[in-house]
Amino acid sequence: KQEVTQIPAALSVPEGENLVLNCSFTDSAIYNLQWFRQDPGKGLTSLLLIQSSQREQTSGRLNASLDKSSGRSTLYIAASQPGDSATYLCAVQTGANNLFFGTGTRLTVIP
Amino acid sequence: KAGVTQTPRYLIKTRGQQVTLSCSPISGHRSVSWYQQTPGQGLQFLFEYFSETQRNKGNFPGRFSGRQFSNSRSEMNVSTLELGDSALYLCASSWPGSSTDTQYFGPGTRLTVL
User: How far apart are CA A24 and CA A88, in angstroms?
Assistant: First the structure.
């Protein structure tokens, strides 16, 4: 069974710092990997989707990488802002829209 | 374009009752997936519907069921509610439901079972 782990579980950084969130998964037979953010009590917002054949995707200050063979992905956030405070979830897709989610990293950016 | 909508946003039920949650996907999307989010188990996949057919199912008991209508709107039903069913239920839609498409999530329905 696919298991997805995210480290660290929580992270607190001062505004302006660059940071890296980690995600690992046990089964490399994935279709894609997605990063989401979730604000308290809200649904999920898709940030980046990396196809299994891709190595990375970028959107603004966000860059996500994927190393399928080692079962790892990282989400890099540059020049963090207080508005980036949220829980970040990674998820791997192994079947028709069947996403396996990690437990998330709760990020707090201190002004 | 309107996003994914879920109704109701909040529900309070008692043990043994049943509940129906509704999800309206983004216009044109034909795939709807349901997830349960709890503090202990995190986000877990319930099932996915595409063109009115259940295409994929997670590891949940038969008390959890769903359906999809011809307009792609979906409902999920939980019968004989248990305290452990208290959770945020999220639905997500995509088109055409392939591995290349981002799933768009609704705001969720928060179910509390007393």
Answer: 14
